[in-house]
Amino acid sequence: MKIIRSKQYKPAPVRGGYADQILKVDLSSKTISIMKSPADFKEKYIGGRGYALKLIWDLTNRETRYDSPENILVMASGPLCGDPRFPGSGKFIIGTISPLTDTFLDSNIGGHFAPLLKLCGFDALLISGISKEELVLIVDGDKGTIEIAEATSYDDEVDAGGISYGENLLKEFNNNELHENIAAVTAGIGACNTRFGIINSLFYDKRRKRIRAKQAGRGGTGTVMRHKGLKAVIVRSGLSRIKGNDPFDKDGVKRAGASLKKVISQADSSQLNLGVLGTTSLVEYMNKFHILPVNNYQYGQHPNAEKVFANTFLENYFSRKLPDGCYHGCNLACSKGAEDVTLTRGSQKGKKVGIDGPEYETIAAATCMGIFDPHFIMDYSWYCDEYGLDTISMGVTTSFLMECVQRGYLSSEDIGYDLNWGDQDAVARLMHETALGKGFGKVCGQGVFRAKKWVADRYVDKTGSLYQEVMAELNKFGMEVKGLEFSMYITKESLAQQGGYGFALKGPQHDEAWLIFIDHVYKEIPTLKMKAAALKWFPLIRTWFNAVGLCKLPWIDVRHPEAAGTDNPAQNNPTLEYYIQYLNSTIGTKKSIEDILNDSERLQLLQKLINLRHGKGKRSSDQIPLRAMGPAYLNEYEARADYYDSWLKDQIGEKKLPKDRKDRHRLLLKLRQQAYNRLCDMVYQEKGYTSDAVPLPETLERFNLMDDQALALLEEFRPDSNERLISN
Length: 728
Known about the structure:
Layout: E1 3-8, E2 21-26, E3 31-36, H1 41-45, H2 48-59, E4 73-76, E5 92-97, E6 104-109, H3 113-119, E7 124-128, E8 135-140, E9 145-150, H4 156-160, H5 162-173, E10 182-186, H6 190-193, E11 199-205, E12 210-216, H7 221-227, E13 230-236, H8 250-267, H9 274-277, H10 282-288, H11 310-316, E14 337-342, E15 352-356, H12 360-368, H13 374-387, H14 391-406, H15 412-415, H16 424-436, H17 441-444, H18 448-459, H19 465-477, E16 480-481, E17 484-485, H20 495-502, H21 516-521, H22 528-548, H23 553-556, H24 573-587, H25 593-613, H26 626-629, H27 634-639, H28 641-652, H29 661-687, H30 697-701, H31 708-716
Parallel strand pairs: 2-7, 8-13
Antiparallel strand pairs: 1-9, 2-3, 4-5, 4-7, 5-6, 8-9, 10-11, 10-13, 11-12, 14-15, 16-17
């Protein structure tokens, strides 16, 4: 690699989980600088999502778009990232202004990259500017150098793929050897040609003897990375991982980690069994409870779903002999992989590859397109990772376009070929076209929000009421909010999860509020008041996980045996106590659950302010598609007519039930819309917002967020006196 710019430095020692330094790289000027974290930075913004939010709030403005030079890409861990003595400590956040949503979006990702970056002396990496040539950034803590290099070119196939390219790059960097002390992030060719490009976090698995990958999948972080001209970042450090965080209370860290590992080893196998099955275990649950998305979320269950249940992947693809996981010390080890899988499609047909996953979301993306073939899912998973495509956005956008065909808004002439439910050849063709920016893939690569407009423009003249009518129909089944495609859960029968998607500040991604199990399956929050309270509490806890650098699955998906005896079993507070012990032992504090909730609320309010600044923060931006509330069309109603009729009887009484099924359908949708709007009112009240979802001045002042920029925003969105709080 030809070095363009080099800087010598001495890695800062980590103390209490922090290095207290941020690495800044401007790709326009090719400059490298090291910023000391401000004195109160970690106390107010914690790390991870918090660091990304604060930096983007300060360094961008409302005109900043994903392709603006001043847009920044932040990769930030947190104080609890990187300690193998505690499960799930390999997580970090990548935050930016999104190509899909035009506002702040972050995606959490695992692997070894962030722990190694911290050992190199940095809590975060901040990338700004745009390079005319493709570059690689190298942070070498062992040598004490930071270098900007020209990106090496390999053969066309390797250059097209983020994972293959990264593997070759790591070998070139380390004398043709791979090692656990070296990691990288890359983005493939699909990130150059779509708005939903991903970033792969690559690490060497010495047991499988290959490079493995985890993904920052949502919102187009890879698209931003490649637009900036950055093809990869390499980090290296040979320092001890066990000693890496230098916690204030080492014994406390050991005790907290041992306690959580004990719960995982005792409870997981009798619950979701993630340690054996990974997140594929969710497929059977979702199908059973009508939550699995089928044919663009029209249906929640399918007779062929059993073909893609967890045991299929365990018996035919996963290895029982090889332990898994995306970072050292996590005994949940839910990150599964498959070896020597023969690809059956595309340019690499016949090649044997290692495949990471598939995760539940990828399997459900296939069922969303009407596909229930496990080997197709393996191919789809590998190509999306290799190309750098979000399996969720790719699947949901394809599904939307398929339904446009179903309902007569698109034809094969518009697309160039038939695109029907379950057509594996057509889906594979569209995926490859999308990644390469060819043919109809140019439309698909824009995502659902922009595809809706393209379809409407094609279907009818823009002028006149007919255009608006067409857009209204497309909005019913175009599964996006704030520009981000829905993740893979049917929400028709879960009002809480409807709110979890609608109120999610980044758009409908379940990592902000995954309430589908406790609401729809376990029925632990039956009242509207309980749902509203959950929609404040759970996003705050999840925000905290994304700030400190931890995986949420050991908490939310492995319930402590003692949780059942608590006031709110769904919160799994006995396990949360281990996390609080780990926090205090690491950073040397005495924080309580109330303290971390307050820390998280500050971050959520800051994200809300960024959304307001970028036009995505008011009540109108929290509205969800009709299909997310109930059966948008009569065919969906008729598929579960007995269920829906019974639901209506419970709401209005059997005597008032309309005789005509079309009238029942219309009434059901009216009642569902009313319920969602009542939920909006209650959640905004819980959060200290106006009825239009704007934070009240006193809410911001409580968290010391009323700077000049926030004050100007509130003046702009100042409500009338009768809009302050619903209860007034």
